[in-house]
Amino acid sequence: MSKIMIVDDDPNIRELVRALLSNQGLDVCEAIDGRDALQKMNHFNPDLIIIDVMMPQMDGFELCHNLRHYYENLPILMLTAKNGLTDKVKGFELGADDYLTKPFEGGELIVRVKALLRRYKIEASQVIQIGNVTVDRSSYDICIHDSHEDIPMKEFELLFKLASFPGKTFSRNQLIEDIWGFDFDGNERTLDVHIGRLRERFLPEQAGFKITTVRGLGYRLEVITDAK
Q1: What pLDDT sits at residue 186?
Q2: How far is residue 184's CA from residue 181's CA, in Å, rounded to a whole number?
Q3: What is the pLDDT of residue 27?
Q4: What's the domain range around 173?
Q5: What is the CATH number of the domain that holds 7?
Q6: Residues 94 and 28 in one domain
Q7: Do 219 and 211 touch, CB atoms closer than 8 A?
Q8: Do 10 and 104 fall into the same domain?
Q9: Do the strands 147-149 and 170-171 form a parallel or antiparallel pair, or are they unpaired?
Q10: Looking at the whole model, is its pTM more than 0.90?
Q11: Three-class SS of the chain
Q12: All residues at 6 or more sequence positions from 28 whose CB lies less than 8 Å from its CB, including other chains
C-alpha cells in the first residue's frame, strides 16, 4: 500500500484529500504545516507528499526546498489556490513534480497522484534486464549482446516504462501521461511513432522481446522465451 502525506492548514481540505485517496486504497497521513510535516517524515516515510503553498510556520515553498535537500526522489505535488505562472515556476524550480490549483476535481487529483506514484516506482528501479537487452536508467545506457545502443530520451523512457512491467498492457493515455506529462498538447500519433521506432531498433529475434499492440487499448512488452 502506497503512503501519502497531505500537508495543509485547512482541515476541510485534509479531510477531503484523505477521503479521496483512502477510497483508492492509499494510506494517508496528515500534517498541518511544513514543520509538522518534517517532524512526521521519519516515522511515516511517505511515497508521495501533497503540499499546500499558503501555510503558517513554514509555507509550501520552504517545505518543498527542505524536502528536496533530504529526499531527492520523493514525488511532490503542490496544491494551492494560486494559479499564477510565477508561482508554478517557483514550485517547479524548488523541486515540485506537479501542480494542482484549488478548487480541484477529485478525479483529477487521483489521476495526478497515481501518475506520480507510477513514475516513482519506475525510477526506484535503475537497471532492468529484459530479453537480451539491459536498460540502465542511472546512465541511460542500453546494452544488447555486449553492444551499446544510443537512442533519444523519450524513446528510452518509453522502453524503460514498458520493460519495467513485462506483460502488462498500458493504455495510450497512460503512456502519454507518464512519458510526456499530464498536460501534453500533442496526440496519440506521437506515441505510435515512438513505438514504431523502438520496434525498428529492437527486432524481436535479436532483442528477445517484442512490443505488442493491444487493439483499442494500447501496448505491452512481451518477452520471447526462445530468443537467442
Answers
A1: 67
A2: 5
A3: 97
A4: 126-223
A5: 3.40.50.2300
A6: yes
A7: yes
A8: yes
A9: unpaired
A10: no
A11: CCEEEEECCCHHHHHHHHHHHHCCCCEEEEECCHHHHHHHHHHHCCCEEEEECCCCCCCHHHHHHHHHHHCCCCCEEEEECCCCHHHHHHHHHCCCCEEEECCCCHHHHHHHHHHHHHHHHHHHCCEEEECCEEEECCCCEEEECCEEECCCHHHHHHHHHHHHCCCCCEEHHHHHHHHHCCCCCCCHHHHHHHHHHHHHHCCHHHHCEEEEEECCCEEEEEECCCCC
A12: 3, 4, 5, 6, 17, 18, 21, 22
Distance, CA of 179 to CA of 171 (rounded, Å): 12
80: Cα separation from own chain's centroid: 20
CA distances from residue 126 to 40, 113, 143, 150, 220 in whole angstroms, order as listed: 28, 22, 14, 17, 20
Q: At what angle do helices 11-22 and 106-124 cross, to 10 degrees?
A: 70
Task: Give yes or no: residues 36 and 131 share one domain.
Answer: no
The x, y and z cell numbers of residue 44, run together, are 511515516
- Residue found by looking up cell 485547512 in the block: 10
Q: Which of 162, 115, 156, 166 is nearest to 136 (CA)?
A: 156
pLDDT digits (tens, 9 = 90+) for 16-71: 999 999 999 999 999 999 999 999 998 999 999 999 999 998 999 999 999 988 88
- Chain segment 64-110, per-residue pLDDT in tens: 999 988 887 789 999 887 766 777 778 888 888 888 988 899 999 99
Contact 6, 28 (CB under 8 A): yes
